[in-house]
Design brief:
The protein is of the alpha/beta class. It has one domain: NAD(P)-binding Rossmann-like Domain (Rossmann fold), CATH 3.40.50.720. The protein has seven helices and seven strands. It has helices spanning about 10-25, 50-65, 85-105, 135-150, 195-205, 215-225, 230-240, and strands at about 1-5, 25-30, 40-45, 70, 115-120, 160-165, 210-215. The protein has a seven-stranded parallel beta sheet, with helices on both faces. α2 packs parallel to α3 (about 85-105) and α6 crosses α7. The mean pLDDT is about 95. The protein binds NADP nicotinamide-adenine-dinucleotide phosphate. NADP nicotinamide-adenine-dinucleotide phosphate binds near residues 47 and 171.
Length: about 240
């Protein structure tokens, strides 16, 4: 029996990844606050609360002596300037988007021997976006976690895949913190959650290091590093700063 653990499987990208893993024959355990209803197992945990998160990890260890794939997908966003975002909001975002995946991965290393960890970072880790500074920072931290952990875990034969998705309409921005949310544009983003989920599962199977999706965000990242002044001007225009 192949076991997958997917955090944030109750909506959006996590839901699509969990469904794709089920289609591929995995038994899927969901970890989040709301029961997704379609997964094979559900463990309730609130990642903004370290005690709840750690109880979730303890429960996973009790139920699953071996885990083939862990998908650290649960996350929240924020659309606010650094000045607008409160320290409490900033800490909550780091608790859910960074400290939770780090704690869950560290807590399950023995169970993951020979398996794979997929961290859902963001294209915001590649391209600086004004009014999303905290999100850029937290997803960059998660990407750095993936890149360095991969080297450290080589002896345990645990593969790490970092994923940088661009914008996919899931309702994510409407659930984000802050007053500068962009409008949802259903059907107008570059991809849908199901196509994205297939790409993620294929990349994990092929043991790729990183999936940037759509791929052109990688070039956008290189452009932003080479031409910072142009990137800054574009950001100021888009966000009316
Ligand atoms: N959609 C995009 O355009 C996009 C682009 C780049 C990166 N991403 C990343 O992709 C991941 C999934 O995003 P999405 O678009 O699918 O968002 P979503 O539809 O809002 O789903 C977020 C998931 O995270 C879980 N979650 C949120 N707060 C939680 C908490 N306190 N404790 C436990 N679980 C929590 C939610 O489950 P419960 O509410 O049941 O707890 C939900 O299942 C996130 O990490 C996001 O940063 C998304």
């Amino acid at each position: 029996m192949k076991i997958a653990v997917v955090t944030g499987a109750s909506s959006g990208l996590g839901k699509a990844i969990a469904a794709e893993l089920q289609r591929k024959g995995y038994t899927v355990a969901a970890v989040c606050r709301r029961d997704p209803g379609f997964c094979d197992d559900f463990i309730a945990a609130d990642f903004s609360d370290p005690a709840s998160r750690d109880a979730g990890v303890a429960e996973l260890k009790k139920r699953y002596p071996h885990i083939d794939i862990l998908v650290n997908n649960a996350g929240i966003g924020s659309y606010a300037t650094w000045e607008e975002l409160s320290e409490e909001e900033l800490r909550r975002e780091f608790e859910i988007d960074f400290f939770a995946p780090v704690a869950i991965t560290r807590g399950l290393l023995d169970e993951l021997a020979g398996g794979c960890v997929v961290n859902i970072s963001s294209a915001a880790a590649l391209v600086p976006v004004a009014c999303m500074g905290a999100y850029c920072a937290v997803k960059s931290a998660l990407r750095a976690f993936s890149q360095t952990l991969k080297m450290e875990l080589v002896g345990r034969n645990i593969h790490i895949l970092n994923v940088c998705p661009g914008r996919i309409d899931t309702g994510f921005s409407s659930r984000a913190v802050g007053g500068r949310k962009p409008p949802e544009t259903p059907g107008r983003t570059a991809s849908n959650a199901e196509t994205f989920a297939r790409k993620v599962c294929n990349a994990a199977e092929r043991r790729r290091r990183e999936l940037v999706y759509p791929y052109w965000y990688r070039f956008a990242g290189i452009f932003a590093r080479m031409f910072p002044a142009v990137t800054e001007r574009a950001n100021r225009k888009i966000w009316k700063l």
